[in-house]
Amino acid sequence: MTQPTLTYDDILAAHARIKDDTLRTPTVRATRLSMKLGFDLYLKLENLQHTNAFKARGALSRLLTLSPDQQAAGVIACSAGNHAQGVAYHAQRLGIRAVIVMPEGTPFNKVQRTRDFGAEVVLHGKGFDDSVAFTEDMAAREGLTLIHPFDDPDVVAGQGTVAIEMLEQRPELDVIVVPIGGGGLIAGMATAAKAIKPGIEVIGAQALLFDAVKSQLEGTDPHFDGASIAEGISVKAPSPRNVEIIRRCVDRVESVTESEIEDAIFDLLSLEKIVTEGAAGAGMAVVEKLAPGLQGKAVGLVVCGGNIDSRLLSTLILRGLVRDGRISRLTFRIDDTPGQLSRISRLIGEAGANVIEVIHQRMFQSVALKQAELDIVIEARDMHHVQEIVATLRAEGLTVRLAGEG
């Protein structure tokens, strides 16, 4: 068995190293979410950190331990996301050459942001696991120091400083919820949190599609089935050292579905106006899943990053509005005569909703020749308002079906 090597003193040392060049992000009470959930929820806003993710902490912690010769030779990292940008940002600031290996197919905006921080980007492999061996070979060949995203004690110690700040800012916390991918963040945070406040409960959050740590703890087969919106924690092989720390210091690990993560990201955005990526959404989803058992407790959640693709976010927002009934599609079967669309639009407007899209079909449907099918997308207050509108339209003699009805 791999023995845990990280200590609270290691995290204190990392905190002393990085505090002058790391943002002390706020831990704020989520007012609307607290009202919804029935207990006090506090958010540690690491999405405001340098490069908009906690990963900058661990990257800086490791960079500051390099010898002069290692600094002169440069560093290398393998990452498609937050670790890449964290290493690149602080390496540029410290005048250290940085090479970042990113999987082929990494979105251009992530590649460009990493290059903007002065890093040399090498594209190789289909995913993180494919790129690791190549990165190790390149490090040995060129004499570069490898900075691993989660299997490095100095990196993990840097991530653990998040817990020090949280408990300084909110010492009343009873529970901390932390997303898990490779295990570095929760290993560091759990070590620090249990040293500062032994009775605190630490809960890990994983995407069901990448539940490697949960499955190891429970002795079950992992899922590893498809792509997850929480790509930052989509790790198949977590660090054995981190897993042993999790066994010792973490009270439980929960997994959540893709739809639960999506809904949680939308809740953070719509209720608290906080933009988060999928990993943080997984943490929020676990908070919502466990809400009945958290009543009366002060709960802290690490909003570990905010680097979500803008196109993905726009789709997620629209889907969230549909879920809440703010946007709905009504399908009408009408006589193909003049004035029908005008009449329907007037009735919808009088009911207090907006028409935002109209699709008038005559050719591609199964209705009679002198009929037409009309799809109208409307914006309403909520699902109750939509039901009222549908009832009003049917009372006017219109044949209408709400999307999702049988």
Structure notes:
There is one protein chain. This protein is α/β, with parallel strands linked by helices. The chain has 3 domains: 8-49 and 163-319, 3-Layer(aba) Sandwich (Rossmann fold), CATH 3.40.50; 55-146, Rossmann fold, CATH 3.40.50.1100; 325-402, 2-Layer Sandwich (Alpha-Beta Plaits), CATH 3.30.70.260. The chain contains 16 helices and 14 strands. The chain has helices spanning 8-18, 31-37, 55-63, 68-73, 82-94, 108-116, 128-142, 153-169, 184-196, 212-218, 240-249, 258-272, 278-289, 310-323, 340-350, 383-395; strands at 27-29, 40-45, 75-78, 98-102, 120-123, 145-146, 175-179, 201-207, 252-256, 298-303, 327-335, 354-361, 371-379, 399-402. The strands form 3 sheets. It has a 6-stranded mixed beta sheet with strand order 1-2-10-7-8-9, sandwiched between helices. Strands 5-4-3-6 form a 4-stranded parallel beta sheet, with helices on both faces. It is elongated and about 80 Å long. The model has no long low-confidence stretch (mean pLDDT 93).
Task: List the main descriptive attributes of the protein structure presented here.
14 strands; Alpha-Beta Plaits; six-stranded mixed beta sheet; 406 residues; alpha/beta; Rossmann fold; single chain; 19% strand
